Amino acid sequence: MFAMQGIDFSSAEHHKVVIVGTGPAGLTAAIYAARANLSPLVIQGPQPGGQLITTTDVENYPGFPDGIMGPEMMQKFEAQAERFGANLRWGMVTEVDFSERPFKLVVDEEKPILADTVIISTGASAKYLGLENESRLLGKGVSACATCDGAFFRNQDLAIVGGGDTAMEEALFLTRFATKVYVIHRRNEFRASQIMQDRVMNHEKIEVLWNTVVEDVLGDTLVEGLAIRNTETGKARTLPVQGFFVAIGHQPNTDIFKDWLDMDETGYIQTQPDSTYTNVEGIFACGDAQDHVYRQAITAAGTGCMAAIDAERWLADQEA
Ligand code: NDP
Question: Does ligand 1 come within 6 angstroms of the Cβ of 167?
Fold first, then answer.
C-alpha cells in the first residue's frame, strides 16, 4: 500500500492515460487517445470546456465558416471524445505524485487514481488586480471576459484595465453596448499590436487614461465606480462606471504540478522542443498550460493531438 496524505492507493482505479482538463487541448487529446483504444479517463476540472465556455462567437476556428458559439463548440468536442470511448468525469485533480510509475493523482482531495501516462491540459485563467472589492464584486459589475458579459452593460459607462491585445479587443467589443469605454493603462504606451491600438485610439466611444492605476472598485452590491490614480501627477479621483473589465493577462493553472515539472517563471510547463514531453517521462503537457505564445483554440487542439500521439508511442515503447 502506498499513501499520499493518508490516501490509500492500493485498490485505486488504474488507467493507461489520464487527461487533466477539458479545453480544446484536453478534449482533442481525448479524441486521439480514445481512437487509439487507450480508453482515456478525462478529469474535467473546475470549468469543463475551458475558456471557450466563456466566449461567444468563435470565428477563427477552421471548419466553421459562419462561426460557432464557444460553448457549442466545446459540446461538440466532448461528444466526439465520448463517441470513441473517452470517459469524461466531473472533478478536479487536487494533488499529484509523479515520483514513480504508475503516477498518482487525487481527485477532489479524496479519490485516488493511478495512471501510466498523464496528459496535462489544465489551461490558463484570467489574472485579476488582487483588490478586495474586485473579488467581492465579481459577477456584479466586475468581469474578466467582455465577450461573455459585455451585453449586460447596454448604455452604460464602462472601464477596462490593461494595455495588451486582449484589452484592445475587449474595449472595442464593449463599444457595441456601452455609451463610453475607458481604457486604463499603467504606462504611457500600449503593448498591443499597432493595428489594435489604432482602432482603440480612433474610436469615438473610447477614452484612454494613461499612467493610471486602479486602486479600488467602488460599490455596495454593484459596481458604481473606480478609485483611480494618475501615477505621474499623483492625483486621485473617482471614475463613475457601472462595469469594470480586467484584461491584464492570464496565469497557467499549473500550481499542483510545480513540485514535479519544469516550468518558466510564470508557471508555464516547459516541454521539449517539437513535442509535448515534459521533464518527467510519461507526463505530457499541451494547450495553454504550456503555451504562452499562441494561446488559440486551434493551437491548443494541435498540441492536444500531439500529446495523445506522444503518449501512445511512449506507452507502446514501454510495452515493447
Ligand atoms: P499581455 O500580457 O499581452 O498584456 C497584459 C497587459 O496588462 C499589459 O499591458 C500589462 O501592462 C497589463 N498589466 C499586467 N498586470 C497588470 C497589473 N497588475 N495592473 C495593471 N496592468 C497590468 O496579455 P493579453 O491577454 O493582452 O495578451 C496575451 C497574448 O495573447 C499576447 O501575445 C497577445 O498578443 C495575444 N492576443 C492576441 C489577440 C489577437 O491577435 N487577436 C487577441 C488577444 C490576445 P504592461 O504593458 O505595463 O506590462
Answer: yes
Surface-to-core class of residue 46, CB atoms within 10 Å of its CB (0-12 exposed, 13-18 middle, 19+ buried): exposed
Any bridge partners for residue 69, and if so which? Answer: 57
165 CA distance to ligand 1 middle (Å): 6
* 148 included as an active-site residue: yes
Whether residue 105 is predicted with pLDDT greater than 60 in this model: the reply is yes
Average pLDDT for residues 117-142, to the nearest whole number? 95
Q: What percent of the chain has pLDDT over 90?
A: 86
* Minimum-distance ligand 1 atom for the alpha carbon of 169: 42
Find out whether 20 and 284 touch, Cβ atoms under 8 Å.
no
Residues 38-47, mean pLDDT to the nearest whole number: 95
Domains of the chain by range and CATH? 3-125+250-319 (3.50.50.60), 128-246 (3.50.50.60)
Active site residue 145: yes
pLDDT for residue 114 = 98
Atom nearest to 162 CA in ligand 1: 7
